[in-house]
Design goal:
Length: 297
């Protein structure tokens, strides 16, 4: 069974690492904030002191980190991945990062005789815990085939997107849709609430008609209950929309809806909602309309 180094035990990474252990893989974990690995160690994981320690004997390395700056620190920093990676190692980044950074990591990995896949995921905390993530993968298709059983231990679907950088590009395009859908759901629910419509009845209508979406399915009840327990944070969605905005500018793609959604999430972040679930962006609308969207009519 392959030896895996897993770096990043946050909202998503913890569940992903746990599923690798359940599938019988030998896993060595590292998290930048200490104290996150307790239950994983009880389930058989080994804990590394540094990223370099996590990858030194690994055949496959998986990173699940919050942003470009943190990824740079883990890969290029002191006692980072590139200090210890061996020729033949396959590096897989499942974070949401810029395509340009994915290409930079690819080039550095190849200079050390290793391979790199950008393989971000869709699916929030419940999917990470339940092993039902979808991976979108950029990189050599031959390399993907070598690690497909590892990815399917954490997810139910693996979709090949193309050359390195394609996975990162696909993820930003995908999360652009998710962010716009969340903004649309919040706005529609605010209109309904202001017009005296019962929130539960309106959500049932949304899910029964042309406005139905996975976002409404996952977030509608949370909004009605003012339940902002984090599945995917507002701050991370804002980060992804900002990355997508930079990408689309470079591609010369007009993105008026992306820019509107990004502005809404920036408002939410300025309200101090960044560490709550992205559905908390509805609190901006509640402030504007002067009532809770989930209030009974």
């Amino acid at each position: 069974m392959k030896k895996i180094g897993f770096i990043g035990l946050g909202v998503m990474g913890y569940g992903m690492a746990a599923n690798l252990l359940r599938s019988g893989f030998e896993v060595k974990v590292y998290n930048r904030t200490a104290g996150k690995a307790g239950e994983l160690i009880a389930c058989g994981a080994n804990e590394a002191a540094t990223p370099a320690d996590a990858v030194r004997e690994a055949e496959i390395v998986i990173t699940m980190i919050s942003n470009d700056a943190a990824i740079r620190e883990v890969y290029y920093g002191e006692n980072g991945i590139f200090d210890a990676v061996r020729p033949g190692t396959i590096l897989i980044d499942s974070s949401t990062i810029s395509p340009s950074l994915a290409l930079e990591l690819t080039e550095t990995a190849e200079s050390k005789g290793a391979s790199f896949l950008d393989a971000p995921v869709t699916g929030s905390k419940p999917a990470a815990e339940g092993g039902t993530l979808t991976f979108m993968v950029g990189g050599p298709e031959k390399t993907l085939k070598e690690v497909e059983t590892v990815l399917t231990a954490m997810g139910r679907k693996v979709i090949y997107m193309g050359a390195n950088g394609s996975g990162a590009t696909a993820k930003l395009a995908h999360n652009t849709i998710v962010g716009i859908n969340m903004a649309a759901l919040a706005e529609g629910m605010a209109i309904a609430a202001s017009g005296g419509i019962n929130g539960s009845a309106f959500l049932e209508l949304v899910q029964s008609g042309g406005a139905a979406s996975r976002t409404a399915e996952l977030k509608g009840e949370k909004v009605l209950a003012s339940d902002y327990d984090v599945q995917f944070s507002l701050a991370l969605m804002l980060k992804d929309l900002r990355l997508s905005s930079v990408l689309s500018d470079g591609l010369k793609v007009p993105t008026p809806m992306l820019e509107a959604a990004k502005s809404l999430f920036q408002i939410g972040d300025s309200m101090g909602l960044g560490e709550l679930d992205m559905s908390s962006v509805t609190q901006a609308y509640e402030q504007w309309i002067g009532r809770k969207i989930g209030d009974k009519q």
